[in-house]
Each structure stands twice: as C-alpha cells, then as structure tokens.
Design brief:
The protein is an all-alpha fold. About 50% of the residues lie in helices and about 0% in strands. The chain has one domain. Mean pLDDT is about 85; it is low at about 1-20.
Length: about 210
C-alpha cells in the first residue's frame, strides 16, 4: 500500500503540465470598404441654362423662320418703329417709366440670360395688360439690351428663348412697375419668347419684315 502511494506521488510530480485549451478566437473578417456611389454634383439652375444655350448650334439659329412673327403694328407683340411722334409730355412719362425699369433689380441681374428674360417679360406684361407704353417699351428695351449685352451673346440668349421657351425662371408680376397681380406663367413665357424672337430677327437682319 505504501509503495503504491509513493509510486502514485512520483508519477504526479514528474508528469508534464496539462495546457489549458485555447479559448476560441473571435472570427476576424476583413473590413469591407463600401465605395461611395459616384454621383455627379447637381448643376445649378443657372448652369443648366448656360449649358442649354451653349448647346444651340449656328445651324439651329439659321433655321429659325419668321413668317409667323406678328406684325409690329398689330395688337399682339406691338413695337413702335420710332419715338419721334411722341409729344413732350408723353416722352417725359416714357423716360420716367424706363427709369423705373432700369432701377428694377430684374434689369440688373448679373446672370445675362435671366436679365434678358426679365426685360422681355417687361415687354410681355406691358403688352398683355395694354400698358401706356406697350409699343414704346419694347423699342427702348431692345436698344437697352443691344447697348448692354455683347451681340453674339444676345443672339444666343434670344435663340434660346425662341427654341426653348419653357426653360429658365419666369417671373409673372413686377410690383416695382405697378404690376401687382400674377399673370398666367405659360402666357407670359409665350409673349416674352415672342419678343425675344423679334429682337433675334433684328439682330440677324431678318426683321422687320420687308414690304413686297
């Protein structure tokens, strides 16, 4: 019995230590990098208009016809062909009106296409409400734009308004000129584009129509 106990103690004393089982390692997964979707930055409304204008070709401009343009002496899209027949009092009121137009922020817009559209809208609204200067205002505004805007740029913008009348921001009232009430946008766009076409024809030497 004593020998058995000694043998057991000896075997225990020299037995190699038992290593504890390694704890299961947490599964490691390589971090997944999800590539962000590559999206083009949104274009501003002004940039969209500029891209549209730049996309108009000379061929498209040359193909615009003017047979459907209203006569300047008509009741739709009228334009005076001279101011010489105005008396002094009327001329003074016209000068006062144009001073208000030029003081209006819309006539000073640094964005040229929008400024042109704004001033064509003055012509359109004056025509639609049969303002006192519905004939004379377009005459003076055309001269104003020809003086302020480089000719090639003005041709491009007028062609854009003619070919793509639904593009760009359209105002429908001008309280600064006494026009408080909203006017139907589609109608204003149509008239403003009509005046733009009349100016385009003049810039290209295709208007006014030659009498047969």
């Amino acid at each position: 019995m004593r020998r058995s106990l000694i043998a057991l103690l000896s075997a225990t004393a020299f037995a190699p230590p038992t290593l504890a089982a390694d704890a299961p390692k947490a599964a490691t997964t390589a971090p997944t990098t999800q590539s962000a979707a590559t999206t083009k930055p949104q274009m501003s409304p002004e940039a969209k208009v500029r891209a549209s204008i730049n996309g108009i070709t000379k061929k498209q401009v040359d193909e615009i016809t003017y047979e459907d343009v209203e006569e300047d002496t008509g009741i739709i899209l009228p334009i005076a062909n001279t101011l010489d027949d105005l008396d002094n009092d009327t001329h003074k009121r016209l000068d006062d009106f144009m001073a208000k137009v030029q003081d209006w922020p819309g006539a000073k817009d640094e964005n040229v296409p929008q400024r042109v559209r704004n001033l064509m809208t003055v012509c359109a609204l004056s025509d639609m409400i049969h303002g006192e200067f519905e004939r004379e205002a377009p005459y003076m505004i055309f001269d104003l734009l020809k003086a302020e805007v480089e000719k090639d740029e003005l041709i491009k913008v007028c062609a854009w308004m003619t070919l793509k009348p639904d593009e760009g921001r359209q105002i429908t009232r001008i309280p600064e000129l006494g026009w408080e009430d909203e006017v139907d946008e589609a109608s204003v766009r149509e008239r403003a584009s009509g005046y733009a076409k009349k100016l385009l024809g003049r810039l290209l030497g295709k208007l006014p129509k030659k009498e047969n």
